[in-house]
Every structure is written in C-alpha cells, then in structure tokens.
Design a protein that fits this description.
Shape: elongated
Distance between the termini: 87 Å
Strand order of the largest sheet: 6-5-4-8-9
Oligomer: single chain
Number of strands: 12
C-alpha cells in the first residue's frame, strides 16, 4: 500500500482520512474537584436515606441490648458465686440502677469494696428495669429470691425469668 509521511501524520492512499499519531498531552493522575463533589453528594444522599430508616429502630435495639447485657451479667454473677464460694445479691435500687453485693468474708454484712453499682441508662438510655425480687446467687449455684425482671423501652418490653437451678431466660 502506498503511504506518504508528512510531519507526524502517515497517509495511506487507500484510506481517505489520515492516521495521525499525535503525541499525547501529559495529564496527571487523580480526580477533578467536580468528580469529588459529585461523589460526596451521592454518598450524602445514600447516608441520609439509610439514617432515616435506622433512627426509628434505635430504641428497640437499645432495649434488646440492655436485656441481653443484663442476662449475661446475671449469668456471670452466678458463675462468680460458684467459683469464689461467696453469696452474691443483686438489688434493683430504682428503675435503671442495680447493685451487686458480693459477701467476700461471709459475715452477711455489707463491707467496703463488696458493692458494685451499675446504671443501665449509661449504655442504654431510655430503658427502665423493674424486678419482682432481689435475687441471691448462692455458692452452690442455686438462686434464692427468684425474680422476674422486666425491661421496658420504646413501647415494648423484654422479660428475664430465673429458675431455682440458676437458669436465666430472656423472653
């Protein structure tokens, strides 16, 4: 095929338009300001849609989290009573605070460093607690003063029930 070169362009006689090989202009990598702003706008729209769907569910998640945490705390206290061979009493002082008394010297008197107080509202705001009794975990694993503990929040309730053998169920 006959070709002619004029400058940087190569002309092929059979093809009507020139096939030019022009040097590429140097373009640095990265994104333009417009691309970044459009991406941020899309992320903002998606985040606001997700937040509007999640926010109404937060009180229900707090209630479930508080109930699960309290159930695990009570199970842990029972295991601590067994392993340390001391009675542990849980007292619900108001609608969001409970105290744990470990009778470390077995004298049936509350001494310094034997009481620990926990406020549920610190981690789970808006959740209230009501108990029918103050359970006592004995060193044998048996629970005396059985309690039904009701947690309320977000218009719903969760109930913890205890058995004499030390079982704790969350309904």
């Amino acid at each position: 095929m006959p070709t002619t070169r004029i400058g940087n362009c190569l002309f092929v006689w059979k093809v009507c338009k020139p096939m030019c090989r022009r040097p590429k202009l140097f373009r640095p990598g990265g994104f333009t300001l417009t691309e970044i702003l459009v991406t941020l706008a899309v992320i903002g729209i998606v985040a606001s849609a997700a937040a509007s769907n999640v926010l109404p569910q937060l009180p229900r998640y707090r209630l479930q989290g508080a109930a699960t945490q309290l159930a695990w705390n009570l199970r842990t206290l029972r295991m601590r009573a067994i392993s340390q061979h001391h009675a542990i009493t849980v007292t619900f002082t108001n609608n969001h605070v409970y105290t744990v008394w470990t009778d470390k010297n077995d004298n049936s008197v509350v001494d310094a460093n034997e009481v620990q107080t926990t406020d549920i509202n610190t981690a789970y705001g808006g959740v209230t607690v009501a108990s029918t009794n103050n359970p006592v975990f004995n060193p044998t694993g048996v629970v005396s003063n059985l309690a039904v503990i009701t947690l309320t929040g977000a218009g719903s309730t969760r109930v913890l029930t205890m058995t004499a053998a030390g079982g704790i169920t969350l309904n």
